[in-house]
């Protein structure tokens, strides 16, 4: 990676590297993926103007003429109430630079979003009956083991939203194409504020529900569910449940773990089963979060279209779940219409994940009024996905999963082939790289003080 880019941008963008580095980082067939190029694209793709967030470096430099920056973190201590957030760099403050989650050090920052909760009654005590045939917990629905119940279905999904105008643009396009999507919603991350206390988010989530899209959970502040303690993991689930209940009166039963990370060793898989959640991963990764909007975003368009137009692909026998991010401007303004036009022209139908899996709409949500009566309505199976096997849906499905072989057409960024569309948790290297860039930039900046 170019040194100048690392110093100037790393501290501002390391939070997003950490937030998304573990989701389906593509493997290029026959090539060695370049860490420098991938990191360069990732850092450049989330410029500060997208979210309006200052860097930690700027925040510390501003303190030169005022109060000295107060340190926090492991071995140091917690922030006081008036500087309630402990930033990833280990300094106390109260603006978005310090309070940006998932990187706010919530153990040492009482003002971090992790400690903010939705108003109203907790959802912890609601009945969590396991109904329908879609597995609960376990290894989830993903990759080579995935197929929709019916061929010809494509479930386009979005993570991390809603965010300002981008999600509204996406909803407009789905209405234009008479298609449905699934939105895996975060409750209070990337400094956007609580979804149930921000009117623009309340409005867009209500619109999702009214127009027949599926609302699902992506946790409260996008923490790695495999790396946090049991109480924090529970809060990550209950808080977003409470917020969505406040907005639409519904509690989702579908969830996508941040970083695609929910391991059996951590207890996450069993926890999700106990909480009554279907764990949903993906098959077709557009890799939109990992592109530079100025010069590599075309990759995402090429990868989606290339995979859907492979010679052995047809709506008569194939189906898939794709992943994108509705917080990205180019995803809203370019990628979404390309995806919708492609599947429409090829004869596929854009559906929710629930419809893709053949799950009745009544099963997608819970409510405070749930009772044993609801179990009797559709009770067929209370299966839990195996930690080592398939999702359980493909065994009853005649639709074959989407092949991960190279699509027709070339990938201009990597030379010849589309990324292998897998859900790899092992790609945490990018998260570590992002934090390393942040530390380097911070050290250089503070040395001048």
UniProtKB/TrEMBL annotation:
SUPFAM superfamilies: Glycoside hydrolase/deacetylase, Plant lectins/antimicrobial peptides. Residues 69-114 form the Chitin-binding type-1 domain. PROSITE patterns: CHIT_BIND_I_1 (PS00026), CHIT_BIND_I_2 (PS50941), NODB (PS51677). Disulfide bonds join 85-99. CDD domains: CE4_ClCDA_like, ChtBD1. GO terms for biological process: carbohydrate metabolic process. Keywords: Carbohydrate metabolism, Chitin-binding, Cobalt, Disulfide bond, Hydrolase, Metal-binding, Signal. It comes from the Eukaryota. Residues 152-354 form the NodB homology domain. Its cofactor is Co(2+). Residues 376-418 have a biased composition (Low complexity). InterPro entries: Chitin-bd_1 (IPR001002), Chitin-binding_1_CS (IPR018371), Endochitinase-like_sf (IPR036861), Glyco_hydro/deAcase_b/a-brl (IPR011330), NODB_dom (IPR002509). One of its GO terms (molecular function) is hydrolase activity, acting on carbon-nitrogen (but not peptide) bonds. The keyword Cytoplasm does not apply. Residues 375-419 are annotated as: Disordered. The keyword Membrane does not apply. This is Glycoside hydrolase/deacetylase. It comes from Didymella heteroderae.
């Amino acid at each position: 990676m170019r040194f100048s880019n690392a110093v100037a941008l790393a501290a501002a963008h390391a939070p997003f590297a950490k937030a998304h580095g573990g989701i389906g980082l593509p493997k290029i067939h026959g090539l060695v993926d370049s860490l420098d190029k991938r990191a360069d694209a990732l850092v450049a793709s989330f410029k500060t103007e997208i979210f309006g967030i200052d860097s930690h470096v700027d925040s510390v430099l501003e303190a030169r003429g005022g109060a000295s920056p107060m340190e926090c973190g492991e071995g140091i201590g917690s922030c006081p109430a008036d500087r309630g957030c402990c930033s990833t760099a280990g300094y106390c403050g109260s603006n978005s630079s310090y309070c940006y989650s998932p990187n706010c050090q919530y153990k040492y920052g009482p003002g971090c979003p992790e400690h903010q909760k939705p108003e109203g009654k907790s959802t912890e005590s609601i009945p969590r009956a396991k109904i329908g045939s879609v597995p609960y917990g376990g290894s989830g629905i993903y990759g080579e083991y995935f197929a929709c119940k019916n061929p010809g279905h494509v479930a386009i999904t979005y993570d991390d939203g809603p965010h300002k105008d981008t999600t509204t643009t996406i909803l407009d396009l789905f209405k234009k194409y008479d298609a449905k999507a699934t939105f895996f919603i975060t409750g209070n991350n990337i400094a956007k504020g609580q979804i149930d206390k921000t009117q623009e988010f309340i409005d867009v989530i209500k619109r999702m529900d009214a127009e027949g899209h599926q609302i699902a959970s992506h946790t409260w502040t996008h923490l790695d569910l495999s790396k946090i303690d049991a109480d924090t993991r529970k809060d990550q689930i209950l808080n977003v449940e409470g917020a969505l209940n406040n907005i639409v009166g519904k509690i989702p039963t579908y969830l996508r773990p941040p970083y695609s990370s929910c391991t059996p060793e951590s207890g996450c898989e069993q926890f999700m089963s106990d909480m009554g959640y279907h764990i949903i991963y993906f098959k077709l990764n557009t890799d939109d979060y990992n592109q530079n909007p100025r010069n590599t975003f075309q990759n995402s368009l090429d990868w989606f279209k290339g995979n859907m137009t492979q010679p052995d692909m047809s709506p008569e026998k194939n189906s898939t779940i794709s992943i994108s991010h509705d917080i990205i401007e180019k995803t809203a303004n370019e990628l979404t219409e390309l995806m919708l036009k492609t599947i429409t022209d090829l004869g596929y139908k854009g559906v929710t994940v629930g419809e893709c899996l053949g799950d009745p709409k009544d099963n997608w949500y819970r409510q405070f009024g749930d009772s044993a009566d609801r179990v009797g309505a559709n009770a067929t199976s209370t299966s839990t996905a195996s930690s080592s096997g398939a999702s359980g849906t493909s065994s009853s499905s005649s639709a074959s999963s989407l092949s991960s072989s190279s699509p027709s057409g070339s990938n201009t960024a990597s030379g010849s082939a589309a990324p292998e569309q897998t859900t790899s948790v092992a790609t945490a290297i990018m998260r570590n790289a992002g934090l390393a860039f942040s530390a380097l930039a911070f050290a250089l900046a503070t040395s001048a003080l």
